[in-house]
Amino acid sequence: MTINPNFVLRELAGEWLLVSIEEGEEIKRLLYLNEIGKDIYLHLKDGLEGAALLDALYQEYDADPQILKADVEAFLLTLRDYRILQD
Amino acid sequence: MTMMDALLNRAAQRNTPAAGTFELTARCNLSCRMCYIHNLSCDKELSKDELSTAQWIDIMDQIQTAGTLPLLLTGGEPLIRPDFPEIYQEAVKRGFLLSINTNGTLLSEEHFKLFARQKPLRTNISIYGMCPETYESLCGNGAAFEKVISNIRHLRELGVTVKINFSSTSYNHKDIPKVLEFAREVGSIVHFVSYMFPPTRAAKPCEEPFKRYTPLEAAEAGIDWIRLSNSPEQFAAECRKHATMPPGRIDECLYEGKEGARCRAGRCSYWITYKGDLLPCGMIPAIHASVPELGFRAAWDQVGGQFRSISMPKGCLSCPDYERCEVCPAIAWAENEDFSQVPKYICEKNHHYHTRLAALGAEGSDL
Question: Does a structural domain hold residue B110?
Answer without folding.
Answer: yes
